Amino acid sequence: MPPRHQTPWTMLWILVIAQFLMSVGAYAWGPLAPFLIDSLEISRAEVGLITSSMYVVATVIAIPGGILVDRFGSHHTLIVCLIFSCVPFLLMGFMKNYNILLTLAAVSGVGYGLINQTSTRGLMNWFPPQKRATVMGIKQTGVSLGAALAAVIFPISSLYMDWPLSLAGTGIALAIITLAAAIYYRDQPDKPEEPTTFANSSSERTNPIQLVWQNKPLLVVIFIFPFLAFAQISITSFLLLFLTESHNMSLAIASACLTITLISGTLGRLIWGTLADRFFKSNILKACILLSIGGCVAAAAITYLPTGTPISFFYIISALAGFTLIGWNAALMALVAELAGLENVGSVMGVAITIGWTGIFIAPPIFGLVADTAGYTWSWLLVLCCAIVSLAGFVFINFNQPSNHLKRM
């Protein structure tokens, strides 16, 4: 019998807070972009490279990290990924050099490359299948809430003190949750194995790449991952700059739009998972199709909004973009996790992240470069294309896979 504090919900909230604080750091660079450009005299593309450096390392570590999660459990890997996150951000408080900042951001990618496999394994370990999309949504709200907080605190704090101090504050908060996780977080003891209800899945550990290749729905879902990731990171990294430069918004109003986007993304991650578990009778695919349609509408609106559009309309489109193109994450990760099965979830999630995060680390420099050379309209067209590809992929699965293979018992 585990101690009283070792309950599924205690473990969930530790994972939520860890994901939240790590996301504050990961999404700092978009809100800090105007200050970095001015202070370090760098271009928009170089700002994008900071985010890319973190995600390149996170992508490299994803598959081996996922294998380690499956082998050793989520307790030890949670501590490791938090340490690799808090130390770089603590050091950033003493640095004001672009190359050093780039390097420290890359080191923090080790931690960020482990957190999704670790937290997904932890949730599947502690919760039954009927609740997993919902709790995955709750856990993934940590990402968008962290991004929303970053959008608020970094511009404000950087106006009143040097931006490196804001990054150091993030490091201190990460150090606190690292200590809390070391004391309170555990894997569930004596967790029984459970059969998977998906076609082409196996309850035994196997080569994750082979497992993905043999499971066609899983293969298509993972193919969709980088396109939605490209759209998400483009919005979080460049929406603020786009609104201030192309629509002459004040920093305060542009920050409000970005904050609305991220808060809507938080709600989306909660609502899409709940819809999948309850309204769609555990058919996650239906939720994914619906959110992709909304993402296409939002991306098209951002692309073609004319100058002089009322601010209220920007707020509405920002909310829709967040609800869909940021809110997709939990539903898609729950779908990947259920297709993989408990015994393989860490390693398969590592494959998904490795492929999916290619969209994240190529998006900022590509989006920034296209904006620098051809204008923002062409950059946002890339985001629209990503939304269309995701919709086409989900529709393809829907028409080529029996519906009972996409439901959880």
Report the β-strand fraction as a percent range.
Answer: under 5%
Number of domains: 1
What CATH calls the topology is Growth Hormone, Chain: A
Please report the distance between the alpha carbons of the first and last residues: 27 Å
Q: Based on the coordinates given, report the CATH architecture.
A: Up-down Bundle
Radius of gyration: 20 Å
The CATH superfamily bears the name MFS general substrate transporter like domains
Strand runs, count:
0
Work out the helix count.
16
Report on the structure:
This protein has 409 residues and is mainly α. The chain has a single domain, classed as Growth Hormone, Chain: A. It is built from 16 helices and no strands. Helix 1 (8-26) runs parallel beside helix 6 (132-160), helix 9 (216-246) crosses helix 14 and helix 9 runs antiparallel to helix 16.
Quick recap of the structure?
This protein is an all-alpha fold.
